[in-house]
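Dear V.,

Thank you for sending over the compound details. I've combined the ligand you provided, pyridoxal-5'-phosphate, with the protein sequence from our construct and run the structure prediction for the complex. I'm sharing the raw inputs here so there's no ambiguity about protonation or stereochemistry in the SMILES, which I know was a concern on your side last time.
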Amino acid sequence: MPYVRPEIAAMSGYVPGEQPQGGKFIKLNTNENPYPCSSAVTRAIEATLRGGLSKYPDPMATAFRTRAGEIFGFPPDWILCGNGSDEILTIVTRAFVGQGQLLRLPYPSYILYKTLAQLQGAASEEVHFERDWSMSERFAEPRDDLRLVFLPNPNSPSGTMLPAEKILGFAERLPCPILIDEAYVDFADTNCLELVRRSDKIMVSRSLSKSYALAGLRFGFLVAQPHVIRELEKLKDSYNCDALSIAGATAAIDDQAWLAETRAKIIATRERLTAGVRALGFEPVRSQSNFVWCPHPKVPVKPLYEQLKANRVLVRYMNYPGWPDGLRISVGTDEQIDACLNLLKGMV
Ligand SMILES: Cc1ncc(COP(=O)(O)O)c(C=O)c1O
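Below is the predicted structure of the protein with pyridoxal-5'-phosphate bound, written out as structure tokens.
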């Protein structure tokens, strides 16, 4: 296709995890929440539907920003809503990274960051995690062309976190903004939200897909200083969040009791999963997230992924060049994790 921009023609495009539509799978491959969302969400969506969808939604999702702001201790103008946190990442990349400029990301981490740089005709630079998933000071090294840094915290696929103080140190040395991607932070012991008050170079993105069991609704948000949010607003589609998602997301964030209960169940199952795979000879990484990264020092893991899939259990096989490959197993219900572990027992 000769009319497409050369940088688009040259890229292969981001490939999301498998989403089988039909057939019964135990789905442990894209870090979805195995529990149904809060019933308040369904009620809110049904009420909105009854009111009809003939009018455009609130372009700024004020109801969500107000309620989320109360919960997290920020005025609404510190919050920008998006169609999933992926859209937030897109908006931020478009705002800060132009053609030929540089975006930095850690490696291995979320593959989409690199794709976002490619879409801009920008370059990306991967700074490798250490083998213990810590990060060296090279991550904060200034470079003339550096315009934006992404840091998932917790990281995927490792599920590990860098301490907030360390990230603040990075931000202070960096010549550009840093976006801390907290898509999984509700399963962790700490978070970096307070850092946003310290510097306008620090932004934090959150997702309702995992912890609030709303991957299908598509809702995420960014917290940053108001003058940063005002710039970013210019890049979003006018109605980037639809009326149903705004209603559902507002009800979800309002139900913090549901979150606490579900989070506790998932963390308990995560610990069982970690112990279970360790007993099978894997070397799982201690996770602060709702998945566990499971390399195996002796057994090739790709056939395990394939055999699990043949038995209708879907996990994510990941192979990052330069790193041992592994299975990233999302934390399902106890029954789902038992089914997965029982199958693995017969394979390793
Ligand atoms: C690190 C990370 N950030 C962001 C996202 C996107 O989440 P959302 O569903 O909110 O777009 C994902 C989804 O897998 C992720 O792994």
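A first observation: Residues 31, 84-86, 110, 152, 156, 181, 183, 207, 209, 215, 220 surround pyridoxal-5'-phosphate (CB under 6 Å).

Warm regards,
I. M.
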